[in-house]
Design goal:
By secondary structure, this protein is an alpha/beta fold. It is built from 17 helices and 12 strands. Among the domains are: 134 residues, Rossmann fold (3-Layer(aba) Sandwich); 163 residues, NAD(P)-binding Rossmann-like Domain (Rossmann fold, 3-Layer(aba) Sandwich), CATH 3.40.50.720. The strands form 2 sheets. A 7-stranded mixed β-sheet has the order 9-8-7-6-10-11-12, sandwiched between helices. It binds NADPH dihydro-nicotinamide-adenine-dinucleotide phosphate.
Length: 444
Amino acid sequence: MSYVDEVLRRVSDKNYSEPEFIQAVTEVLESLRPVIEKHEDKYRKEALLERLTEPDRLVKFKVPWVDDNGNIQVNTGYRVQFNNSIGPYKGGLRLHPSVNTGIIKFLGFEQVFKNSLTGLPIGGGKGGSDFDPKGKSDREVMAFCNSFMTELYKYIGADCDVPAGDIGTGAREIGYLYGMYKKLTGRYEGVLTGKGLSYGGSLARKEATGYGLVYITDELLKDHNDSLKGKEVVVSGAGNVAIYAIEKATQLGAKVLTCSDSTGWIYDPDGIDLELLKEVKEEKRERLTAYKAKKPNAEYYEGKGVWSVKCDVALPCATQNELDLDDAKMLVENHVLAVCEGANMPTTLEATEYLKENNVYFIPGKAANAGGVATSALEMSQNSERLSWTFEEVDSKLHGIMTNIYKNISDAAIRYDCEGDYVVGANIAGFEKVCDAMLSQGLY
Ligand code: NDP
């Protein structure tokens, strides 16, 4: 049996109750086959893949807090520190009822390669809780965040592990978490990113993931003698990544036709009204029905459905496994040119294969949404030098990083005779640096 198959079997047997983690490891190791096979004996001897697929550490803890009715609630908190061979652990905190060990491990594993691809010195981690901030008062969110941090602070630090936002963790949550960290440790340091501008945050961090996604999409199209200008774009999600992807795509001359949330979706033939969307989602935290109420020309549908809309470019920006084989078939039937992932693993393995077989350009999340973590690393740099850069400085560094990521994943695919396969390219380019660092540092 090949080394890759051996490790895949071991990972499936050991983690049988964690389908998302198995899915992520399978996707990565399958595409690393050509690289692994070239050095099979050496990597097997070093147990490289066993070490790569086992987190350095996983902490799971109780998070008790009191709700507005005086009742005690108990949630579960997680932090996985997956791999720190190229820098301190770095990755977001997800607050969503679906969070469990397998989801956190899949996200932490993906983060290792993503962070490597940015070219910056950051290792991979991830965390979160099954707490749902939706519908909670500010006081309840603060009570949860305070309790969460009273445990998490023992494991993190500016040079050791630097968490950030993710689904359900925005500026408000990061603020409460930071306040409690400071109180517990007495240290004012860059231990979290995505901070507010008044206390160490970076300009352009809020926009970074969405903007970065659009920069790399435009780079991809330019490499194929095309561009985003004049294109029709379909976006899923209506959160941080989706909103700023819509903003940048619109600025570059595309028309964005859709957005969605966990209850329904909007089709706006005039192009999504960004100011209205920000008001509904960022300011008032309302459902998308509020968008429809203020924009009668738009159509609102319950459930999922954005992938049935004819478009040139699709940008899934909501959550994992939101674009399945049937969705991929609709996109191909409608002659989509490119699918670039703003969310983490939004496309199922079958859908990814189908899109690739049908010559749709496909950039996986670990490359396409790396602009967020890259800008978080720029926030860390600014915190270390006690300086703040201008929006333009950060945005131009972000643009440069995304252009480089595109070049690196494209070149890696060409080196292994898979030109245009950006999944293989991203996994190989991300893996090479981590592999070199792990082997150089010996067994630990
Ligand atoms: P937000 O919480 O700001 O927004 C998430 C959006 O997706 C919301 O519109 C939400 O709807 C929708 N959504 C969440 N879960 C589901 C679900 N199960 N079914 C349907 N819709 C859902 O998160 P972000 O925009 O920050 O993150 C989106 C994705 O991008 C995630 O996969 C995240 O891991 C990834 N990502 C984020 C980065 C960042 O910098 N923020 C960086 C890199 C990746 P509703 O409003 O109803 O909750």
